[in-house]
Design brief:
This protein is of the alpha+beta class and about 170 residues long. It has 7 helices and 5 strands, in the order αααββαααββαβ.
Length: about 170
């Protein structure tokens, strides 16, 4: 099956994946854009697992102050190089994470930080297990995995703080 350059460009624009990866995914899915996105997402998750052990000593601290100035959040997001930390995609990820913290008030980064015997639901109190506020069909961990696939580096949420007047 011949895959058009426009289809490859469209898929690349949607996913940020490489040209050859997009072409291969479109060939596997016989030109179906949604199936090709799913193929790339699965490859991205596998890629994220492979990069998970790599050191993340660079990154940035992102802030978000909700309108009215009554709620704010700080998030430290780490990556492998300062080059990636300065990209728009990484900054957008960090901003989305800060918005998530401000909106959903998680207590822990992930379930490994929860004290033994904690009765609360990890999907409510763990940032990475929460449904993403902009797209509830995926978790915050899915968002991070997509960034890993797109940026080609390990990405980690190190810590966060949430501030709210009166709390």
């Amino acid at each position: 099956m011949e895959i058009s350059v426009d289809a490859i460009k469209t898929l690349r624009g949607l996913t940020g994946a490489g040209v050859m990866d997009c072409k291969t995914a479109l060939e596997e899915s016989r030109g179906d854009m949604e199936k090709a996105e799913e193929v790339l997402r699965e490859k991205g998750i596998a890629s994220a697992r492979g990069k998970a052990t790599r050191a993340t000593n660079q990154g940035l601290v992102e802030s978000y102050i909700h309108s009215g100035g009554r709620i704010g959040a700080l998030v430290e997001a780490n990556c492998e190089t300062d080059f990636v930390a300065r990209t728009g995609d990484f900054k957008e990820l960090a901003h989305s994470l800060a918005m998530q913290v401000a909106a959903m008030a998680p207590k822990y980064v992930d379930s490994s930080e929860m004290p033994e015997g904690e009765a609360e639901n990890p999907e409510e109190v763990c940032l990475l297990q929460q449904p993403f506020i902009k797209d509830p069909s995926k978790t915050v961990q899915d968002l991070v995995n997509e960034a890993v696939a797109k940026l080609g580096e390990n990405v980690r949420v190190r810590r966060f703080a949430r501030f709210s007047l009166g709390e």
